[in-house]
Structure of Flagellar brake protein:
Amino acid sequence: MTFEDLKLLPGIRLQLQFHSVPSIRENSRLIGYHKKESIILATPLINGSARPIKVGESLNIRLFSNQANAAAAFSCKVKHISLLPFPHFHVQYPADLVTDEVRKSTRVDLTLMASAQTDSTIETVTVVNLSTTGCRLHSNNSLGHIGGTLKLTLKLAVAGEERSITISAQIMAELEKANTKGPAITYGLSFEDLTDKQSLVLHAYVYYMLN
C-alpha cells in the first residue's frame, strides 16, 4: 500500500513522535501533499505557540485511514518549515508504509467511564475491556440479563479529539459477585448494527490504545 492509497483528506488528524523526544506523542493535521515530493503538516502547538522544529529532524508519523480502514505509520525527516500564513512544515514523502488493519478480535484493557441506558434506567458503568465488536464492563446495578439489549455511550479520544458514540449492544454474559466489595455485576456485551462512523471510531481508538 502506498501513501496515496490511503486516500487521506485534508484535516485528518495524525500523531507525531519526534525522535528527539520519543516519549512524547504530539497531534497534528494533514494540510496536503505533493506526490513523491512532500507532505504538508500543521505544526503542533505548545501553550498556543508553534512547536520548535528543525530541518532534518527525524520523526515517526501514525494515522488511521477511514477510507482504507487501516492504521498506517512511517518514518521521515523534516524538509521545510514555514510560519506563514500559519505554522506548518513539510516532511519527506514516504517510500514505504507500515499498515495494519485492526482485527475484530483485538482487545485492549482499560478503565473507561461510560453510560448504559436500558428501558428503565441510565447507569454509569466502567468499561474494562474493549474491542471493535464488543466490551466487558462493570456496573453497580442491574442492566438486564443475557439476551437483553441496551444503549452504551462511549467518549473516546482519538489523536487528541474526543468522539462520542452511542452503540446498541446485546448482553452476552452476566456475572454477579458473591460479596459487596467493588462493582456488583460484570457484563459482556456484543455491539449490534454499528454504523460506518461508529466502526471507524472504534477501530481508530483500539489502534491508538495499542500503540
Summary: Residues 16 and 61 are 5 Å apart (CA to CA). The mean pLDDT is 87. The helical segments are 196-210.
